[in-house]
Amino acid sequence: MEVQAKPKARRARELRSASTDAERKLWSFLRNRQLEGLKFRRQVPLFGFYADFSCESAKLVVEVDGGQHALRGEHDAERTRILESAGFHVLRFWNNNVMSNIEGVLTEIADTARIATPHPDPLPQGEGVTTAEPSSPLPWGEGQGEGPAWR
Questions:
Q1: Closest by Cα among 42, 51, 38 to 82
Q2: Full-prediction pTM beyond 0.90?
Q3: Which pLDDT tens digit goes with each residue over 89-115?
């Protein structure tokens, strides 16, 4: 007995099977954590939309747009606004850009993900950044290799 798929899962599966050549090409570079170890999923339902590609850890959505999107600019802008208000970064690439400049597309995705993904072990607040000179000189000969006199 086959279990009935949820409507969103069914629609996502349909969209994956009807991918454009550009989407298939980009997916071949994003799948299996090939791009800097980032986990991408494709045709992900988010806020009533299906994102072409999404990386949850970087809060990144990548859209690959064909010519039909030139006529849907207002719809795409609204979609981007909703995703960005939820904390996602949205990158959009034209199909022809993916097909002719995949290296540039991958570099932009990686750079954006790097900026968006926090370091796993950040320095505690206030450490690692020097903003001012010390307020008083050291009590021993500064720069002469001398340390405090310990007796």
A1: 51
A2: no
A3: 999 999 999 999 999 999 999 999 998
